Each structure stands twice: as C-alpha cells, then as structure tokens.
Amino acid sequence: MSQTETTKLNRYSSTLTQEVSNPAAQAMLYGIGLTESDLDKPQIGIASTGYEGNPCNMHLNGLSVYVKQGVQANDMVGLIFNTIGVSDGMTNGNAGMKYSLPSRDMIADSIETVVNAQWYDGVITVVGCDKNMPGAVMAMARIDRPGIMVYGGTIRSGHYKGQKLDIVSAFEAYGKKLAGNISDEDYKGVIQNSIPGPGACGGMYTANTMASSIEAMGLSLPFSSSYPATHEGKQNECRKIGAAMKRLLELGVTPKDIITRESLENALTIVMALGGSTNAVLHYLAISRAAGLPMTLNDIQAISDRTPLLADLKPSGKYYMEDVLAIGGIPAIMKYLHGQGMIHGNCMTVTGKTVAENLAEAPDLEFESQKIVFPLSQPLKATGHIQVLYGNLAPRGGVAKITGKEGLRFEGIAKVCEHEGEILDFLAKGEIKPGQVIVIRNEGPKGGPGMAEMLKPTSAIMGAGLGDKVALITDGRFSGGTHGFVVGHITPEAYEGGPIAFVKDGDRITLDAEGREMTLHISDEEMELRRSQWVKPAPKFTRGALGKFIRSVKPADEGCVTDEE
Ligand code: FES
C-alpha cells in the first residue's frame, strides 16, 4: 500500500493514529495490541448486535469474529463493538414491546456514536433481527463512510409431528389453547420444537423482509439474505466482507452513493414481490429520511401498485426463507425482475459493482421446478400487498397488508380495545365475534409508546379460528408474521387525538382495500362532538428511554424517526 493510498483509506482514523497531538489515543491503541504498522492501516468498526438472549442474535458475535478475520487479512484493523438488540419475539405488548421500535433508533444512535467518536474509516454491521437492520442502515446513512451490512441469516424451520414450525406456530398455539383446540402435550410440543437454533424468524417476516430488501438496495453482499444462519455460506460471506470493504475504501463508495431514490425503489419492489412485512414501510420511510431522500406513503403505494405479489412465502403463503436459497436466492429473483424491467440495474452496490453487474453472475430463476416464486404472467396478486388506506378514520393514512386471501373489503361493527392486552381478555370471555372490526388503540408511537406489534392478538385470533371472520385496525403495528385483514400505522394516533380515539363499540366501519379507504360511519357533527369530549391522556412515561422516545418520535407516516425537529 502506498502512502497516498494509506492516507486516503485511513482518512478518518489517521486523525487519531497519525497526528502528533493525539498521543493518548495512540497510547491506547498500542494498549489494545496494535503495532506501529497497524497504526497506518484503515480502521473498520464491526458493529454487532450479538447477545446470548435470543436466536436471532445469539450467533452474531461469532460471525463478527469471521468478519474481523477477513478485515485483518486485507491489511486493515477490525475493531468489534457491540450495540443492543431487542427480540420482538420475546417482548410483550404491555412491557417489552414498547422498547422494540425505540431500539431501532437506539441502535442507529449507538453505531453513529462509536464510529464517529472513534474515527473509524468504515463500518460493517452484523445484525439479525427486525429493528437491528433498519437501525444499522440508518446509522450507515447518517455516518456516510464506507459500510456493509451482514445479515445473521434466517433460522431453519422446526419440526413437530411431521409439521414444519416457526415462531408464529408458537404464537398461534396460544390461540388454539384459548379456544380449546390443542392438547397440553401438543401445545408443549409446538413450543419446544418451533425454534431449532440460531437465526431470525423464518418466514417473510420483518427480519427477512429487511434483509432481502437491503440486499436489493445494494448494502449487503449478494446472497446475504438467502444463506440461513447455520449455512456454511454465511461464514464464507463473513470472511469475504473484508475484501469488499477494502474495495469500497479504495473506490470511495459510501452508503449515500448506494442509497438513492432508485435503489430505494429496488428495495421496495423486492418487499412487494416477496409479500414482505408492513414494517418495511415504516423502516424505509426512516431509512430514506436518514439518507436525505424522504419518501412518503404515497411513494410506497405507487411501488406497490406497479409490483405484483409473486412469492408464496409465510406468513400468508406456504414457504420459508430457507426455501428461497434452493431456487437461487434473492439474486435469482432480482435477476428475473431486472430482466422484466422492474429493477434499476445502474445502482451502485457494496461489491463496488452495479446491480446489473452483480446480477450477471446470479443464477436464473426456473419456474417449472418450483412453486415458491411465480412469473409475472401468473402473479399471486396483480399488484403489491401493501395498501395505504385513507379516510375519516386515518386522515394521514393506515397501512394494510392485503394479499387477496383475506378479501379486499370488510364491513363490520367496532369492538374497541383500549390496549393490546384487552383483546386477549375479550377472546377468553368469548366477546370477539364474527363480523367485528377490532379496534386496538393507544398503541401508537407516542401513546403506546413504541407502536407495539399486534402479533399476539392476531395470532390468538387465528388460533381461535376467527382469522377470516374479523378485521383488526390499530395505531400500533403488525409483526411481519401477521396475516388476516389488518390495518395498522393509523395516523394520527389516538394519543394525538386521531379519529381512532373516538370510535365506540357498535360503530360501523368499512375497510376497502381496493378503494383504499377506511371509513367510520358517523356524521361529521358526531365526529366533532366526540372530538370535543375527548381528553388527551397523560404520557405513560416521562423519564428514561421511553420518556425520551415519546418526546422525540415523529408519526408513523414519517417513519417514527427520532432525530428530526
Ligand atoms: Fe428476531 Fe423475529 S424476533 S427476527
């Protein structure tokens, strides 16, 4: 490496390692074991959300060691640091889930903090759960130094009595238990066998949605989202990251060269084609803002309108993410869509090549031999499954996931739950009946706080056999594992005096996914009367992480970001 190259590649870390006015920093770097020649090398922060407490993250510190080996092998210094992760599968609507969405911005803040404060020349994020990935990408966009995201990989499916299982199987077993539809032995059997080891939840839920679409956006290596956590390809990917990072440093390619309007469209096209999570809407609104290219709900709707649903993946379909690798992974799907003019090929990626150049090496998607991804001539649904609904219930929008299996229109009678937990009480008492629109409110970004995911309610409804007989609307969110006629992200939220706060039991509600409307059938005068009688609730938290989140979070239609005025 010439001195000119060295200076270029270590332009940030050289502030600490080369300037004579920083003897303490240099002493500390010798103290951690670096040599004199190491101080000339670029320094790469390796941010891991590894922790032992859940399957999505339990292996990430191990993968980070492989990443570091690859970085060191390419004549750079790799320095691992940790940030937090919160497992959405191990939270509870009345406690932990309130921290889930806030954790995304805490992760972004913490990665930004370490990389900027310690003057790293680049960052590799090793992440593997719902909020970790958007949090990492938001940080990478803010920092805008060469960066690559490594996905920890999807989980393998579990098995019990000849059936494949995943985390949603465990949630739905609870609904079956409430409805008396499962024996104690089978209930235990499902829980003990749903999760066979490391990896993120295995359907096209939020983690796999974000991993697939971030790969499509160009911020992770091809196949990063397709290798399961325990696949040898995942370790190989980690070892290859060092060479890719070196190339990015040499080319001077940063995340803002990669995150562009067109690459965001590529990401969201993949979300739509795969039937991905509604959480992707929230996260891409936030990522686009972090990159200085703010998208709106209508931008996302436009992508949904022009992108057919092609993949028969869980939660609404049959297959798991582990099955996608066998048909050529996300690169094969992207190659097909690119060939059909649906993916922008000119976008830069972390390989240092464009999307089109990467896809030239990708396998072809064969339609004769598989039923996981369908051709554009035979889509599962002619347009995307994400629908933004507006109306007097959601003046600034609500986000629905409509795959077609749940119908396109639902008209019913409101059953109001003042918080997520209340529906479980109603279910246990037999008060949830066919024909109801269940309204779960006070779960928005500020009111929840944290916009809890309604996985437990929707899974319990499914387990109780009411999945196609009721609809559910909320100012909270849905898990990527949710299916059924559901509309979330309703904005303004109840806490801010949104109309969802004024719904009463027995009101008639229409949800029209085709006309993209959600209507509370009361007169304008009645709406105003209820508004005048409404009293804003006190914030549930005023101190600590959640108190800060309530004060700083933007509404769902602005991605719930916390770093804007
Ligand atoms: Fe981590 Fe599902 S809880 S991916």
UniProtKB/TrEMBL annotation:
Residues 41-358 form the Dihydroxy-acid/6-phosphogluconate dehydratase N-terminal domain. It comes from the Bacteria. It catalyses: (2R,3R)-2,3-dihydroxy-3-methylpentanoate = (S)-3-methyl-2-oxopentanoate + H2O; (2R)-2,3-dihydroxy-3-methylbutanoate = 3-methyl-2-oxobutanoate + H2O. The active site is at S479. GO terms for biological process: isoleucine biosynthetic process; L-valine biosynthetic process. [2Fe-2S] cluster binds at C56. The modification N6-carboxylysine is found at K131. The keyword Cell membrane does not apply. Keywords: 2Fe-2S, Amino-acid biosynthesis, Branched-chain amino acid biosynthesis, Iron, Iron-sulfur, Lyase, Magnesium, Metal-binding. Pathway: Amino-acid biosynthesis; L-valine biosynthesis; L-valine from pyruvate: step 3/4; Amino-acid biosynthesis; L-isoleucine biosynthesis; L-isoleucine from 2-oxobutanoate: step 3/4. Binds 1 [2Fe-2S] cluster per subunit. This cluster acts as a Lewis acid cofactor. Mg(2+) binds at D88, D130, K131, E453. Its cofactor is Mg(2+); [2Fe-2S] cluster. It holds the Pfam family ILVD_EDD_N. Its EC number is 4.2.1.9. Residues 371-560 form the Dihydroxy-acid/6-phosphogluconate dehydratase C-terminal domain. Belongs to the IlvD/Edd family. NCBIfam families: ilvD, PRK00911.1. PANTHER family: DIHYDROXY-ACID DEHYDRATASE DAD (PTHR21000), DIHYDROXY-ACID DEHYDRATASE, MITOCHONDRIAL (PTHR21000:SF5). HAMAP family: IlvD. Homodimer. Functions in the biosynthesis of branched-chain amino acids. Catalyzes the dehydration of (2R,3R)-2,3-dihydroxy-3-methylpentanoate (2,3-dihydroxy-3-methylvalerate) into 2-oxo-3-methylpentanoate (2-oxo-3-methylvalerate) and of (2R)-2,3-dihydroxy-3-methylbutanoate (2,3-dihydroxyisovalerate) into 2-oxo-3-methylbutanoate (2-oxoisovalerate), the penultimate precursor to L-isoleucine and L-valine, respectively. This is Dihydroxy-acid dehydratase. The gene is ilvD.
